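Sat 14:20. Reprocessing the chain from the morning session after the first attempt stalled halfway. Input below, unchanged.
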Amino acid sequence: MAISSFGKILTVLDLFSVSRPIINVDIISEELGLSKPTSYRYLKELVSSELLQRLSGTSGDYTLGTKIAVLDYISRTTDPLVQISIPFMQQIVERTEFGCLLTHLNYDSCIDIHHELYKDLTTLTYGRGCPRPIYKGSSAKAILAHLSKKHILDYYQRFKTEFSEVRFAHSEEEFLLQMKQIKKQGYYFSNGEVDPNLASLSIPVKFSSKEPPLALTLLGSKNRFEFINFQKLIEILQENAALIEKKFAELSGDDEL
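Finished this time. Tokens:
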């Protein structure tokens, strides 16, 4: 399906990352295959909508605009799933003294939409809105296991090299078997996959019969997980996930959950 003109303009935003917070017309032209006049037109449209802003004192560098911050604030403070989940996540943190994450599976990455940390816990490697690989850590795998076989295989085909490199699966058959096992046991435990000093435990939050689940995750040091009742942690996550699902079903009127 052809991308609309508006959609093409928005592809400029995909050029930004933590490692590249500033772009210019040459980057747009080169990476999106656009002419200079078209690139300048896209920049003009994005600046006028406050999605981008030009850096003063430069020859034509641009960074993200104030509208991005406004939209993030609106999302954080009004997203019903986040607002429903926060009290339960806070209770989980107080009971376990672990960090707690709520995570969404994007097309090619895993993104935390909220996190709660215990006191001055500094183990958070990524944080809200920061994409991380779907082939590392527990959150993405807990979600992937509950997708349809077609979508599971789609993710595998796109990231089979990476899944093999991290020694998770070396073939399509092995990947499907891993997904089946994760779905059956109801959780996935990651030990040092994202950070060699961290571990995480994730379960799915099935908030819709039509959408992929989110992941509810406990995050802490590998050493701490060794001295904790693992089964009890699973039970705590499952109890709270069920409460989040119930609250959201009541709010949305989805009786299929």
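The longest strand covers residues 198-205.
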